[in-house]
Amino acid sequence: xxxxxxxxxxxxxxxxxxxxxxxxxxxxxxxxxxxxxxxxxxxxxxxxxxxxxxxxxxxxxxxxxxxxxxxxxxxxxxxxxxxxxxxxxxxxxxxxxxxxxxxxxxxxxxxxxxxxxxxxxxxxxxxxxxxxxxxxxxxxxxxxxxxxxxxxxxxxxxxxxxxxxxxxxxxxxxxxxxxxxxxxxxxxxxxxxxxxxxxxxxxxxxxxxxxxxxxxxxxxxxxxxxxxxxxxxxxxxxxxxxxxxxxxxxxxxxxxxxxxxxxxxxxxxxxxxxxxxxxxxxxxxxxxxxxxxxxxxxxxxxxxxxxxxxxxxxxxxxxxxxxxxxxxxxxxxxxxxxxxxxxxxxxxxxxxxxxxxxxxxxxxxxxxxxxxxxxxxxxxxxxxxxxxxxxxxxxxxxxxxxxxxxxxxxxxxxxxxxxxxxxxxxxxxxxxxxxxxxxxxxxxxxxxxxxxxxxxxxxxxxxxxxxxxxxxxxxx
Length: 476
Known about the structure:
Layout: H1 3-11, H2 37-43, E1 45-50, E2 58-60, E3 63-65, H3 67-82, E4 91-96, H4 102-107, E5 113-119, H5 122-125, E6 129-130, E7 135-144, E8 161-164, H6 169-183, E9 190-193, H7 200-208, E10 214-218, H8 219-226, E11 233-250, H9 255-268, H10 276-284, H11 295-315, H12 319-330, H13 350-354, H14 366-385, H15 392-405, H16 407-419, H17 427-438, H18 441-475
Parallel strand pairs: 1-4, 1-5, 8-9
Antiparallel strand pairs: 2-3, 5-11, 6-11, 7-10, 7-11
Helix pairs in contact: 1-8, 11-12, 11-14, 12-18, 14-15, 15-16, 15-18, 16-17, 17-18
């Protein structure tokens, strides 16, 4: 069996069948229930807490795909067969959350089993129970990219910046490494905390693009993505944790669920995999994030950032967020024209710019183009989201989604999300799930890319500020 096949089996990455999306079964995001398996059987549903990413769980139109989806649906079928359920079957319900919310949502009763490639750690064991491991002997290894410093040993991480989510097991592993480094008189690793909305796949894309410098990732994931992302290097001999175990998590005090889950895993932790080449080809069709921090792209950024600051200040938007939107739309290229007639850096239609709410002409000029795009974004924000009970970030994210797909469509998606028990006031893991089902990946990828570019620009801004501060101190 090939390394890739073993990796995909280990991850649970199965080519998803084209099954229909199950009904939401009246699931309510305010449904806080904390019983054992007998209660789940009585309720006719098991709620699986998943993370929305291109490996574990995602939607493309009406089709659900991913590792968590496939394995959880297999459990659903196995359990119904075991209980001889033929009519009133127990349904698998998928509840996407951010990774930092997996355990809190489990404890709070918003889900019953967390199936998101969780590593068993001492800290996590204090809060939840784990199943028999799905994987053992897992290594957490260093992964570098085209702009990374040279790293040959674990000690070479001393003083280096490693990007990591606080909610990940990698964070605990790196803190343990820092204790060992300090005991040896070496400088600790600099832990640069990254947003918990970003998954390993997102971070590896950014590493491949040269936006990030060093990461720690499970070896089986790193090997898989190294076949897809050409510019990352997996350092298999530089491990910050070895012998780790990956399992499902559920609430303590659930003996019936524990017994049943462990019986399932005993028969399903290993298996065969078909369609490897097709699945890999499918992944490669994704539009990976571009590197907005190359010298060429930075030159374009520097030429236009003053205008984004100008109109961001006038209309109350973060200039870096506006630049990220423009980069997604055009790559900061004012000469760009679309087949639909959209013009310039903001890819705005002349008819939109002429609308009385915008009323800006000559959008072939850079200044006017940015002005029209930002003013239109402000119109979307004020008309559709300003008075809604959502935080500032979500108001901006929904405005971006509307910029791409139109406000009427986004309004319908929010209404549908509410009916499905998802939060209509949150984009990530909520309305984006409905958008993926109804629109496909375009708008989902659009908003996520803007968010990644924004983070890249923030990192750049922090770097430039630090460099200016150092220069100022040196001149004193």
